[in-house]
Amino acid sequence: MTEGQGSAGLYESLEGIGDRVREERTRVGMSQRELARRLGLSASMISQIESGLSKPSVGTLYAIVTELDLSLDSVIRGEDYHDDNDGDSISDSPVSPLVHPRDRKAIELDSGVRWEDLNAISGDRVDFLHATYAVGGASTPDESLMRHHGREYGYVISGVLSIQIGFQEYELHPGDSIAFDSTRPHRLFNKGDEPVEAIWFVMGRDGDGQGLM
Asked: In angstroms, rounded to a whole number, what is the distance separating the alpha carbons of residues 181 and 151?
């Protein structure tokens, strides 16, 4: 959690995510029970996420946005999101390409993971993130692996980030980078004694097909 962000601010962030998930689920005519069934979760977990009472893990959030055909950008930005690839062109409503740290949209996820959106332009279907993994933080909390469409590119700024891809485990130190196919089962976690900060790209997450998680 960043300086000055209290529990009220965090609750509003989580509530906003839940509202957007509920709106999109309702828009496509899907019940909480059906969404839960497709994702292998309980209906009560979906209900808690939508009401802002529970934080999704990285894996769960990716599963939800993939199943509902959402962009991660739209979930993070909320009301500030507009799809520049679906309607007005960027030239019609100029947007500064610069993003100051104070202006980043951020969400706190389960298992000690924080994502800040580094992309100035919404709607381009590229996840460009500043990721922070707290000590013990992980993309999936129970050592299960996640997978989804796309390809990931990561660069570690500080701390030591462990990544399991299939049966292989890699350890990234400051300055190390990695790229891999996101359809391969994987898990990111911090088993060190200091937080990990990294820059992360995910491209092509909205590929055709469902049910990769």
From this structure: 5
Q: What class is the 7-82+100-203 domain?
A: mainly beta
Instruction: Tell me, letter by letter, the H, E, C secondary structure of 2-50.
Output: CCCCCHHHHHHHHHHHHHHHHHHHHHCCCCHHHHHHHHCCCHHHHHHHH
- Tell me how far CA of residue 20 lies from CA of 132, 186, 199, in angstroms: 23, 27, 25
Map out the domains of the chain as residue ranges.
7-82+100-203
- How does pLDDT run across 160-195, given as a tens digit for each residue? 999 999 999 999 999 999 999 999 999 999 999 999
Q: pLDDT of 35-78, one tens digit each?
A: 999 999 999 999 999 998 888 999 999 899 889 988 887 787 76
